[in-house]
Amino acid sequence: xxxxxxxxxxxxxxxxxxxxxxxxxxxxxxxxxxxxxxxxxxxxxxxxxxxxxxxxxxxxxxxxxxxxxxxxxxxxxxxxxxxxxxxxxxxxxxxxxxxxxxxxxxxxxxxxxxxxxxxxxxxxxxxxxxxxxxxxxxxxxxxxxxxxxxxxxxxxxxxxxxxxxxxxxxxxxxxxxxxxxxxxxxxxxxxxxxxxxxxxxxxxxxxxxxxxxxxxxxxxxxxxxxxxxxxxxxxxxxxxxxxxxxxxxxxxxxxxxxxxxxxxxxxxxxxxxxxxxxxxxxxxxxxxxxxxxxxxxxxxxxxxxxxxxxxxxxxxxxxxxxxxxxxxxxxxxxxxxxxxxxxxxxxxxxxxxxxxxxxxxxxxxxxxxxxxxxxxxxxxxxxxxxxxxxxxxxxxxxxxxxxxxxxxxxxxxxxxxxxxxxxxxxxxxxxxxxxxxxxxxxxxxxxxxxxxxxxxxxxxxxxxxxxxxxxxxxxxxxxxxxxxxxxxxxxxxxxxxxxxxxxxxxxxxxxxxxxxxxxxxxxxxxxxxxxxxxxxxxxxxxxxxxxxxxxxxxxxxxxxxxxxxxxxxxxxxxxxxxxxxxxxxxxxxxx
Length: 591
Prior knowledge:
It is a single chain. By secondary structure, the protein is of the alpha/beta class. It folds into two domains: 48-77 and 158-450, 3-Layer(aba) Sandwich (Alkaline Phosphatase, subunit A); 478-584, Immunoglobulins (Immunoglobulin-like). The chain has twelve helices and 28 strands. The strands form nine sheets. An eight-stranded mixed sheet has the order 15-12-16-1-17-18-8-19, with helices on both faces. Strands 23, 24, 25, 27 and 28 form a five-stranded antiparallel sheet that branches. Strand 2 and strand 3 form a beta hairpin. Helix 2 (108-115) packs across helix 3 (123-132). The chain is globular and about 75 Å long. The two termini are 36 Å apart.
């Protein structure tokens, strides 16, 4: 689906102060094969950094984010509920202020049960079943939250930095896991667009689709006979052949989850850049070994060094340890602090002006989400997860409604650095029996829509790794109405819009005119200071395309829809969005 109109805040009164510029860009570490820079504006991005966190659904983090497709709410109460068979109740999603959550099962079977043929109501049952299955009732991990925390959600009070990034950059509210399963298949899809089980080394055609149980990597200190063979083709094969640099950074510590995914609790297993595992699968790809690039898997300390000194590779993946992964029972606050530090490091480095950061969570972790995943093949998609795009060229305050998955990251990398070459057995020079070319799925959106390359790169937006809680919902409330809509659409170029804040605020208003699938945007006007004493009248200019669409359809007796959107910022950085949809019936009008 096409991205909808999103408000852009244009004045300093609406935007929080940011730190000083990032300095001159360093020479590119690697470039598109062929030597000459391409004219496509996507090539302004010379460094892609994928930060992959753990186990949160979209609704659990952004279910109440203004303007996003979140939990259906009315007057602050969820309008959906999830059955609790043990209590004989249907429970509504609720705000959960706790820093530690329990989550629920998140393998392929749990995904099917949670989705429940599109009813999206299996979450509590699955979580209650998992809690009863704990082998050790005294294990502290079994006590982190009750089964009902799977329908809890966080907001700006617990994750103010994530909400700030969404407010100032791009939030993707239709980002789905690439497959309906757990962390190992997700990470395999992240780097190769497939999850498979192979019986022979160096033989891609010995590989068969494996949604739940691809071979689990073990440390390289174990015997060769116990090590898995990932014989199919991964993205680094294309990058290496195209002369494009890449690194995969691993934070030393414990693995974020149990290696047996059906387990809720287990003893932590150590990881670092020299211990291949679920969150570090690349060393067991035959292509990585054949290319002599196992050493490209490095410690996160190496990332901080290259980011600060302007030596970023073209493509980077970053994975956490258990402490900062946000995977239950990891603390949400520690994960947010870790991610903020990564982003601050990139923003203050000399290559910020040519960098795109893609931040996501690898699977839903058993947490509630109300949107049924679309189908693409026998592997997915899986459930919705949060997705953010942070870049000096990212659109400001934009909510991307396209259907996306991690496949879109691979597609963007291929378009930016590989002239659009796909992981396609028919064209990539190393065929394998993967079921499809995921990057070319018809429903998959294009991440280019999240960028505006027509403007100079934005300055860094530095946040504290240890922020104060954000505002509660309703701290800034808005009202919006319009008058003389039909007359304005047919006869005039300006629309009278009336706005009201419950306290002094700076308001930006824009919108769109729609008839069926035809949409004409009404660009947002400059921010206006709005008092709390009553409605303030603002004039909204209708551009020719919106005016012509409305006039043509209304005069033919057809109905058009006017959508007006308002973004306001008040004291202490509080902000809110509201929108009003007005259906205008057509009537034949004499010229």
